[in-house]
């Protein structure tokens, strides 16, 4: 089934009116984490244990789709952010599109059909239930378990995808490393519970939402401490600022460098190869 991403706006606003946050509840964009926090280091993985750690990290973050492939975006991305002030929405959108461009995705210019909808709400649970009740068939395409998780989770941020596996016709695989299908995201809905985001600043939230938007990981975790995905589950030191990690960036580069019709196993191998070249294994908190 082909889903037109422009339906996203109607999906949200015909379900329930989200209560926008009051101005000033999120720190201004000037307090974003320094760029130095997300620069990839040049050290290389050297041991078999390091390689196993990278594979473990990848498998903790990414969840195979129904075709046993790792789903990803395969066309232009067009984020829309609602429920925050215009300047904050613009900052989050620019962070997502910048990262998307860095990993090789096309970013739509100007007006575009929304593919990623991120809504900040004071009634996150009610919004999720209303949305999934009204659009049950559409939003259950990636499986009942994900649909139910989206409705019932108590996490500060929840997300749900609609994935297309063969909209342009499936070619026959020509090796054991290929599938006839490609798992491509068509729609991503993210709801941020305004009451649970605490004191996190706009730069931290933008990086977290960028990772969620491009990887759409398993929503319930647990996630490795070497990923920004663990941000809400990590004790925050007063002076600490969270940002995308070397591991996150290398994982995304590997995911989008892999072939769209590759098997999940081949995709993981491509991601590990990318991470092997890009990250410092000493930064991995072992035992995650």
What does this molecule look like?
It is a single chain. The protein is an alpha/beta fold. It has one domain (7-20, 40-283). The protein has 9 helices and 4 strands, in the order ααβαβαααββααα. A 4-stranded mixed β-sheet has the order 1-2-4-3, with helices on both faces. It is globular, with a radius of gyration of 18 Å. The chain starts with 6 loop residues before the first helix and ends in a 10-residue tail after the last helix.
Summarize this entry quickly:
The protein is of the alpha/beta class and 288 residues long. The chain is 36% helix and 10% strand.
What brief labels describe this structure?
10% strand; globular; alpha/beta; 4-stranded mixed beta sheet
Return the domain count: 1
Low-confidence stretches: 13-24, 28-43
Overall pLDDT confidence: 78
Work out the strand percent.
Answer: 5-15%
Structural class designation:
alpha/beta
Largest sheet: 4 strands, mixed
- Element order, helices and strands? HHEHEHHHEEHHH
> Rough shape?
globular
User: Alpha-carbon distance between the termini?
Assistant: 38 Å
Structural Rg = 18 Å
What is the strand arrangement across the widest sheet? 1-2-4-3
Q: Helicity, in percent?
A: 25-40%
